[in-house]
Design brief:
By secondary structure, the chain is an alpha+beta fold. Helix content is 24%, strand content 26%. The chain has six helices and ten strands, in the order βαββαβββαβββααβα. The longest helix has 16 residues. It comes from Candidatus Nanopelagicus hibericus. It catalyses: uridine(38/39/40) in tRNA = pseudouridine(38/39/40) in tRNA.
């Protein structure tokens, strides 16, 4: 992977924008011809206000239908552009399914994607044939069988740590499938909905929804607790039929180190990526 420069061009300032969105009516984050995407709408709104062409770098590209409670991006703008009240102005012209939470001048060496230390996702499942409450229909998936979250937690704990997650990632050229899975556990909320929390340094394409589907296979009793670790170690691809719907998935947050560690974290990302590709 080519290592982009962290240096901001002379006469420009780097901005950090924090935002939230309902992904239901979007074809994912990344711009695609003829389709409604979050990146397209954000960049169009920014260009309209600043009267300049912009290019954003996002912490994690979400797929079609995936939501974000807290996403992060950065962009470089000519330094003379006034950013006071930019969040308010953006929210005035964006549709209601995207909200800008804040706009600040980024500290030196900030990079939304390569400077992040981890990402945290939530997945919600209404199981056992329960009826999904109308207000929950956008961010939870339904499953007709009852799930044993005790079994799911046992299985998921067995794959926490740094591993090659080839089993759960769709292949993308030049991208490493070695990831550090920091947290993967399940609980029931006050409504009885099954809620999974999944945190890793980074995720492969479709990795989260593949992991959820595999965990559900254990929770419903289709496979034994040891099955998750077995297929991980054997690098056996899971069936596409296990991939759970996008609508139950929400990006909760992006974790960054203290500002004085931005440069070291950025460099470490590429060191690990290069090592994985050798």
């Amino acid at each position: 992977m080519t290592k982009p420069t962290l240096e901001v061009e002379s006469g420009f300032s780097r901005l950090r924008i924090d935002l939230s969105y309902d992904g239901s009516d979007f074809s994912g984050w990344a711009k695609q011809p003829g389709l409604r995407t979050i990146q397209e709408e954000i960049e169009t709104a920014l260009s309209t206000i600043t009267r300049t062409q912009v290019a954003t770098i996002v912490a994690g590209r979400t797929d079609a239908g995936v939501h974000a409670k807290h996403q992060v991006l950065h962009l470089d703008l000519p330094a003379e552009i006034e950013i006071e009240n930019l969040a308010f102005r953006l929210n005035q012209i964006l549709k209601k399914d995207i909200r800008i939470l804040s706009v600040i001048k980024a500290p030196q060496y900030f990079h939304a994607r390569f400077g992040a230390t981890s990402r945290s996702y939530q997945y919600k499942i209404t199981d056992g044939g329960q009826v999904t409450a109308p207000l929950d229909r956008y961010d939870s998936a339904e499953w007709f069988r009852a799930l044993d979250i005790g079994l799911m937690n046992q299985a998921c704990q067995s794959i926490v740590g740094e591993h090659d997650f080839f089993t759960f990632c769709k292949h993308r050229q030049g991208m490493s499938t070695v990831k550090n899975l920091i947290k993967f556990d399940w609980q029931r909320d006050e409504k009885g909905v099954v809620v999974g929390l999944i945190q890793a340094n980074s995720f492969g394409y479709n990795m989260v929804r593949n992991l959820v589907g595999a965990a559900v296979c254990v929770g419903e009793g289709r496979f034994e607790v040891g099955w998750l670790r077995k297929i991980l170690d054997e690098k056996e691809r899971v069936s596409d039929s296990y991939v759970f719907p996008a609508k139950g998935l929400t990006l909760l947050s992006i974790q960054y180190p203290p500002a004085e560690q931005y440069l070291a974290t950025y460099n470490q990302y590429f060191t690990l990526q290069d090592a994985a590709e050798e």
